[in-house]
Write a structure and sequence with these properties.
6 helices; single chain; Arc Repressor Mutant, subunit A; alpha+beta
Length: 182
């Protein structure tokens, strides 16, 4: 799959594919550790982490028929954020499995994230691990700003109101399916 703005899309929705009824907290935490420990992910801050989780989940939804974490995503100015992301991150911090550091980056403060523990890979299917690897390889070197810009082209984000949940049905569609804004 290519790495442009529509890179996380596949043609057409998967009929019957659904987000999980509930967030899998252990899987969300392990996905955070997997992304934070991936060598292809450069300069990981909160915004970038949330976007990479989003792109992993929507690619799994589109290709495998179900998201990896079961997360709902909320529309924030810098793009989609998993609804239980902050809670899961704080738990990992309390457990000493990750560390965060405040860094000055280009005139603003970034919360840099580093994995201190390995993820539980047994929670992921082979297909999910491949998706995470591909997303990290394709998008992990991009800036948080670039990932935010790409996420702003996703129909689910575009059509949501600020601080509302993204429509699960619209998450099946990516920018590549409507390249001319029809």
């Amino acid at each position: 799959m290519s790495c442009g703005p529509g890179a996380v899309s596949v043609p057409g929705p998967l009929r019957g594919a659904r987000m999980s009824a509930m967030v899998n907290g252990a899987k969300l935490q392990s996905l955070m550790l997997l992304i934070a420990g991936n060598p292809d992910v450069k300069k990981l801050g909160l915004t970038k982490l949330w976007k990479l989780i989003y792109f992993c989940d929507v690619r799994a939804l589109r290709e495998e028929g179900a998201s990896i974490t079961g997360s709902e995503f909320i529309k924030y100015p810098h793009g989609p954020v998993p609804s239980r992301g902050d809670k899961s991150l704080k738990l990992l911090l309390r457990q000493g499995r990750i560390e965060t550091e405040q860094k000055a980056v280009g005139g603003y403060t970034q919360t840099s994230i580093t994995a201190l523990d390995a993820p539980d890979l047994s929670l992921f299917t082979k297909g999910e691990r491949a998706i995470v690897t591909d997303v990290c390889r394709e998008l992990g070197g991009m800036s948080a700003k670039k990932l935010s810009d790409i996420s702003h082209e996703e129909p689910a984000w575009v059509l949501a109101h600020d601080l509302d949940k993204l429509d699960e049905e619209l998450m099946h569609y990516g920018r590549a399916e409507d390249p001319e804004d029809l």
